[in-house]
Amino acid sequence: MTTSVEFQILEGSDLRALEVYACTQIAQWVADGKTICAVTESLESAERLDALLWTFNDQSFVAHEVAGATDAKVGQPPLPPVLIAVGRTIAADILVNLASTVPIGFETFNRVAEFVDADPARRDAGRRRFVAYRDRGFPPETHKVGS
């Protein structure tokens, strides 16, 4: 399997807009039959993504769980198509990285999706991730969103 890495570059520097865009992409991939592991940096950001997946669009429902957030049945079949994990990966078709570093095990996924905006700290962290992927032999593709 060859892992493809893509960076979606958004205009502006609004974290909520970036996260809503990520939710939109996640919903589309789930509609296409893909499973998603969304990696966040902290429990706070996992909870924010959890809430957004319920509310970002009143016309869609994206089945998901925060891994380890509720009880021992989390991670047991049947799994929802989207699992949100803090600082770790869980097997899925697509890895959505919303953390500031490259997740360990990213190369086991078919596809890695990164979302970066114009916020200086997020942009700089995105550049470091871009270089890290490239240096590990996974040259990323970039797509500008909203231009």
Provide a concise account of the structure shown.
This protein has 147 residues and is α/β, with parallel strands linked by helices. The chain has one domain: Rossmann fold. It has three helices and seven strands.
Q: Which oligomeric form is depicted?
A: single chain
Name the CATH class.
Alpha Beta
- CATH topology, anyone? Rossmann fold
Sheet with the most strands, sense and barrel status: 7 strands, parallel
Low-confidence spans: 70-74
In the CATH classification, which architecture applies? Answer: 3-Layer(aba) Sandwich
Arithmetic mean of pLDDT: 90
**Alpha carbon gap, first and last residue:** 32 Å
Label the overall shape. globular
Which strand order do you get reading across the main beta sheet?
3-4-2-5-6-1-7
Strand content: 15-25%
Q: In which range does the helix fraction lie?
A: 25-40%
